[in-house]
User: Fold ARAID factor from Platysteira castanea.
Amino acid sequence: LDLSNCSLHSVPPGLAEATTAIVLDLTENPLTTLPNDSFLGFVHLQSLAVPLALECPGGSDAWQDVTVDRSSRLCQGQRNPCNSSVELAWPCPENSVCAPDGPGLVQCLCDNPFHGYKCLREGTFPMLLFGGILGTATVSLSLLLWGTQRRKAKTP
Assistant:
């Protein structure tokens, strides 16, 4: 994805849709900062070129090789932060596993069959019970409102 020399002053909002990009060039743009979540979900990104004034997203530890030339910084080989020997700031809770979510970013995914807040619930979501209660409440409320409000409806 070549966004070089596009006069970008900030990361375009549509960039979030390009999470499958492998190579991204942002050089020759007057970018001043890269917000931390700019590359959230960019797990396939292997080569990123940014203006010299900017650091590689996630820091130099998030990349295998960072090279600097006259006008740009090239970040290559995104590292998996889950395989790092450095202790994570927020380790994943019990019953979950760490997964990369972009340069220097991680997410915690629940192991099967756990789900819910901090992966504390075991089993599957009770879809039938949830749907039954929601459907019953909707039908009951609809019948109540129809019965109480139909006398107010005028016939043509």
Observations:
- Helices lie at 127-149.
- Residues 15-80 form one domain.
